[in-house]
Every structure is written in structure tokens, then in C-alpha cells.
Amino acid sequence: MKQKKIPLRKCVGCMEMKPKKELVRIVKAPDTKDENEQIIQYGEISVDLTGKKSGRGAYICHNTECLKKAVKAKRLERTFSCKIPDEVYAKLEEGIGKFE
User: For the chain (length 100 residues), average pLDDT per consecutive 10?
Assistant: First the structure.
């Protein structure tokens, strides 16, 4: 029987490729635009525990050290091209703490 392919994603903290199920997804929802293509509302950044939300995603390990590296190097801000609210970092730290 043919073995199923395991999807891999890169952690923004340690920059290692790992199976998708071992990582936490952070997602930025699409921006809302009007008929003239002007941005009305910027997309919300949130933690996606299901991995099913639509939008641009980034992945991080279940490790507080990886989160600290990502925050220090501003890798999430570069990935999403916008400022990340402190609430998102707090929620990430809380969610990662449950898995350790």
C-alpha cells in the first residue's frame, strides 16, 4: 500500500521543517476592499488552532523558545507585512504553554 505524504511547514522561530500537525498556525484574514479597490478594513490576525481558517498563514512550534526567537526577529511582522498586536503574542504564548 502506498504511504500517505506528510505535509511539512517551516517554523518561523527555529526555521526548521516539521510536520504540519506539530505546529501552531497563525493566520491573517484577507483585507476588505471597496469597489475602487481601496482597503476599508485590514485583515484580523489570530491563532488558528483548527488549521482551516482562510487567509495567509504562518507556523510556529509548540515551544516558547521558538516564539521568543520569532518575536525578537520580528518574523511574523515580516511574514504578514503589518504590525502584530500584543494580544496575539499573549494568546500564542498561552496556547503554546498548554502543549509543553
Answer: 89 94 89 84 82 89 89 91 84 75
Task: Report pLDDT for 10.
Answer: 96
β-strands 23-28, 56-61 pairing? antiparallel
Can you tell me the distance from the alpha carbon of 9 to that of 19, in angstroms, rounded to the nearest whole number? Answer: 6
Instruction: Enumerate domains of the chain plus CATH numbers.
Output: 8-99 (3.30.1230.10)
Q: Say how far apart CA 64 and CA 13 lie, in whole Å.
A: 9
What integer pLDDT is reported at residue 81 of this predicted model?
87
What would the 3-class secondary structure string for the chain be? CCCCCCCEEEECCCCCEEEHHHEEEEEECCCEECCCCCEEECCCEEEECCCCCCCEEEEEECCHHHHHHHHHCCHHHHHHCCCCCHHHHHHHHHHHHHHC
